[in-house]
Amino acid sequence: MSYSERLVSTMASRRPNDGTMMASVIYEAGGPEVFNVEKRQIPKPEKGQVLIRIKAFGLNRSEMFTRQGHSPTVQFPRILGIEAAGVVEEAPGNEDRFKKGDTVATAMGGMGRDFDGGYAEYTVVPATQVQVVKSADTISWEILGALPEMMQTTWGALFKALRLQRGDRLLIRGGTTSVGFAAAAIAKSHGAFVAATTRKPEREKLLRANGAEQVFIDNGTIADQVKQTKGFNKVLEVVGVTTMMDSLQCVEEGGTVCMVGIVGGKWAFDDQISPMASIPTAVNLTAYHSSVKAFVETPLDEIVDELGTERVKALIGKVFVGLDKINEAHKCMDEDKAGGKIVILIDDK
């Protein structure tokens, strides 16, 4: 019997009330192979916390960096996962807000970093970072699992940091990331002109199908290409510091560049940066930081209603079924093969 068959057998035979769950645990930094699927005690919620039976969760690059050992404050062993979607099992002290069986989403607040997160059948999180999803009856678990972190980051970056308005010309640096795809869809629905970048020419068709009206093939510098066009007043920088200086040259006077990701794999600039030399006159530079407050303020139901389930589903690049697929899913993320958000379904029910 293979490992996967043994795992499925174990999960199927486990009594639902024996107090245990299956979880994907990391004991040391390394490649995708470091995750271990094992039996753990179901955590017990205290007053002010919510016990969630997880049905689906999305993968995030911050989890890849943590797995690789680039998050020094995270102590192993740890169950990673900064987001999850599922149903309420218990909510001590908050029974008026959360009923058993409510469909909910959660993200941030130290999940998968300060305390065990979403790579499991159950998780316990503070009630302050849980959002009831009213549109749950109309969407699948794979869609719901993709929403929490992707949408709160995208929504916050577009409307809080960039203050996107109808008629804006938006350039998305890192168009084939999950945030890039979501930003294009949302910005287009709000009446903005959308352009996006990709390193791979074969992905241009995919970007245009998702809402990009203009595509730039990115070799690390695109400012010269941009200057041959009408230009942009807003730039969403998903790649990070590796392309930041070039992105600042892509925005017109009075415009704004917002850094929201580190897809380029670097946290900080190598060299000493001179703001006077690097930031053009009257160009604004800002950043968007994910937070619990931002997550609970993200209108997940409104976004689903605005885009439609088919459009949201199109933002999902790859779906894996079962916790035993974590290693494979992380390998897919490492190799940038998903073409959108990666989602794990706990099971196919």
Strand content: 25-35%
The residue fraction in helices comes out at 25-40%
- Work out the number of β strands: 15
What are the secondary-structure elements, in order, as H or E?
Answer: HEEEHEEEEHEHEHEHEHEHEHHHEHE
Overall residue-averaged pLDDT value: 91
What report would you give on this structure?
- The two termini are 23 Å apart.
- Helix 3 packs across helix 4.
- The protein is globular.
- Helix 4 links the parallel strand 8 and strand 9.
- Helices cover 29% and strands 26% of the residues.
- It has helices at 3-13, 61-67, 141-161, 178-189, 204-209, 223-226, 241-248, 275-278, 292-297, 300-307, 309-313, 326-334; strands at 20-26, 35-41, 49-58, 83-90, 103-107, 122-126, 130-132, 169-173, 193-198, 214-217, 232-237, 251-259, 284-287, 316-321, 341-345.
Brief digest:
By secondary structure, the protein is an alpha/beta fold.
Describe the structure using short key phrases:
349 residues, globular, alpha/beta
Question: Topology of this structure?
Answer:
Elements: H1 3-13, E1 20-26, E2 35-41, E3 49-58, H2 61-67, E4 83-90, E5 103-107, E6 122-126, E7 130-132, H3 141-161, E8 169-173, H4 178-189, E9 193-198, H5 204-209, E10 214-217, H6 223-226, E11 232-237, H7 241-248, E12 251-259, H8 275-278, E13 284-287, H9 292-297, H10 300-307, H11 309-313, E14 316-321, H12 326-334, E15 341-345
Parallel strand pairs: 8-9, 8-11, 9-10, 11-12, 12-13, 14-15
Antiparallel strand pairs: 1-2, 3-4, 3-6, 3-15, 4-5, 5-7
Helix pairs in contact: 3-4
